Amino acid sequence: MSIGLKLMNKVNYKLICLLVLLTFNVIAEDDHSAEPLKIHGFVAQGVIDVDGSNFVNDDGELSLKLTEIGLNTSYQLSDDFRFAAQAVYLNGGNRYNEGLRVDYFLVDWNAYSSEQLQVNFFVGRFKNAHWLHSSTRDIPFERPSIILPQGLYFDGFRDIAVGGDGAALKVAYSNDEYGEFDFNFSRGKSPIKSKDAEVMLSEFSQGNIKHELDTQASVYWRPGFSQWKFGLTLLDSEFNYKSATFDFFVDGRFRFQNYTINAVFEGEQWRFTSEILQTRFLTEGFYAQPFNQDSMGQGGYFQARYKADQQLTLIGRYEKFYTDKDDKRGNKLQEQSAGLVPSYFGYQDDAMIGFSYNFSDNFRVNAEYHWVKGTARLNPIVLPNPQANSEHWKMWAVQLMYWF
Amino acid sequence: MLVMLFGSPTISAVEVITNNSADIASIKTTQLRRIYSMRQVKWANGVPITIFVLSSTTKIHQQFCKETLRLFPYQLDRIWNKLTFSGMGIAPTIVSSEQELIQAVKSTTGAIGYIENINEVSDVNRLEIDE
């Protein structure tokens, strides 16, 4: 197929998506009854400029690779069963693979329902509902910022962290005296394309990476009538790499174990959020046989949001992350790589300020500026690129979004 | 302190109405919060709850959230958006006027909504709110 035809197909494809969204918007606006079918969607386009790293592109030019389009449906099959699905088109440059994805496709079974207790099972492709922003990381108007804190919401792991194919359980218990308790459990695998392996690992990896296991659990508690909410999440995930006949790497196994705690305060104007992460990353093989590495990374952020009025919201955040708690400044990393990998690939600190402005109920602009020190959360993660990335880098982004 | 932040619920200018099928005369604030934050999806008699709301920027919605539910409108928006765009649930149906809301509650089994208490409405169940 010629390049021209490919380009045309891409443009047509985007146009079709937009048309479908606009058409369904008309239907959605007319939906004023308890109809079993619900349709919603969003379109967001932004501009992003990164100076000093290849976070979005390799040439450092201003980029339009900040596109997010989604369309979802929910259909109530009976009082207890519901079908839901969402397709998204994402383009974030080097952050993750550009393209169309089936975001979720599931059957929701309301297994038990009383005035105080809800038990739901989700079977199919489900979203990761465990972290504060994991289920809405691609939903531009539900994210606190255009770029999420990369320590926990690393875009390079987006496709493996966003959800899975399997089953999930949600238990919501409400008590008049002690407040609201949520328990979530999920087990599933993410389909990984060869392009994903290239983004995550390296352009030199020729083999296949397979998600073998993913078990996650989380607990949330909001005390009665409190403006605070607290959470705890656990993740255990395993990947196997099967090398190709002619490959730069050998067979290998990766294992992630994440533990996070979080707290949210929701006031009328102020909203404070913090998530603290500890992540264990085990590598067996892959670089060579035998090879074993067991590192414990840590990170966290504090975010303050101020709602000035109905339209304007200001936001500020500071984040710290290091890949090895015993090597916070990356000196060991530089030594072990004989100087090939600079020490600043061992950490990443990000200070961000921004604002959002609502033009109407469902039309908003977000803008933000980041000052970043370190490059630990840049793709590809296992074979860093010191030439394209400096220790101090900056980034700004503006994104317009519409949803219905 | 909560009363200072959210205002006293006893002087609320908003009343809660349900479809006559809901079979309920009064409701506690905690239960109302559960219903609007989608933590209770069926009435005690097993009838599914259908929620109708006005836009979150309307005065009556804001008054209802702050004075009756003792929540801020953005907190409900977040819960509803999260459910809608993660596939984990559905959000209330937004209607464009109070008249439309009353009509929707009248004609939908298990429906719940709110109105300004100055309005005279027939064929709906007005709920008394217990503390």
Give a structural overview:
The complex is a heterodimer of chains A (404) and B (131). Chain A is mainly beta. Chain A folds into two domains: 1-33; 36-403, Porin. In chain A, 11% of the residues lie in helices and 52% in strands. Chain A contains four helices and 16 strands. Chain A has a 16-stranded antiparallel beta barrel. The longest helix of chain A is centred in the first third of the chain and has 28 residues, at 3-30. The two termini of chain A are 36 Å apart. Residues 1-16 and 25-33 of chain A have low confidence and may be disordered. By secondary structure, chain B is an alpha/beta fold. Chain B has a single domain (2-130), classed as Periplasmic binding protein-like II (D-Maltodextrin-Binding Protein, domain 2, 3-Layer(aba) Sandwich), CATH 3.40.190.10. Chain B contains five helices and six strands, in the order αββαβααβαββ. Chain B has helices spanning 2-6, 29-36, 59-69, 73-86, 98-107, and strands at 14-18, 26-28, 50-53, 93-94, 111-116, 125-130. Chain B has a six-stranded mixed β-sheet, sandwiched between helices. Chain B is globular. Chain B starts with a helix and ends with a strand. Mean pLDDT of chain B is 89; it is low at 7-11. The A-B interface holds A 31-34, 38, 40, 42, 70, 72, 74, 76, 79, 82, 84-86, 103-104, 106, 108, 110, 113-116, 118, 120, 122, 126-127, 129, 135-136, 139, 141-142, 170, 172, 174, 176, 180, 224-225, 266-268, 307, 310, 361 and B 2, 5, 28, 30-31, 34, 37, 39-42, 44, 48, 50, 55-57, 70, 72, 74-75, 78, 81-82, 84-90, 93, 95-96, 100, 104, 107-109, 111.
Category by helix and strand content of chain B: alpha/beta
Element-by-element helix/strand order of chain A? HEEEEEHEEHEEEEEEHEEE
Q: What Rg of chain B do the Cα atoms give? A: 14 Å
Distance between the termini of chain A: 36 Å
Number of folding domains of chain B?
1
CATH class of the largest domain in chain A: Mainly Beta
Strand percentage of chain B lies at 15-25%
Corresponding CATH architecture of the largest domain in chain A: Beta Barrel
The coarse silhouette of chain A is globular
Low-pLDDT sequence parts of chain A? 1-16, 25-33
Counted beta strands of chain B: 6
| Fraction of residues in H or I helices of chain B | 25-40%
Largest sheet of chain B: 6 strands, mixed
Mean pLDDT of chain B: 89
Q: What is the overall pLDDT average of chain A?
A: 89
Please report the two chains with the greatest interface, counting residues with C-beta closer than 8 angstroms to the partner's C-beta: A-B, 49 and 40 residues
Subunit organisation of the chains: heterodimer
Please name the fourth-level CATH homologous superfamily of the largest domain in chain A.
Porin
- CATH superfamily of chain B, called what? Periplasmic binding protein-like II
* CATH architecture label of chain B: 3-Layer(aba) Sandwich
The side-by-side strand order for the widest beta sheet of chain A comes to 1-2-3-4-5-6-7-8-9-10-11-12-13-14-15-16
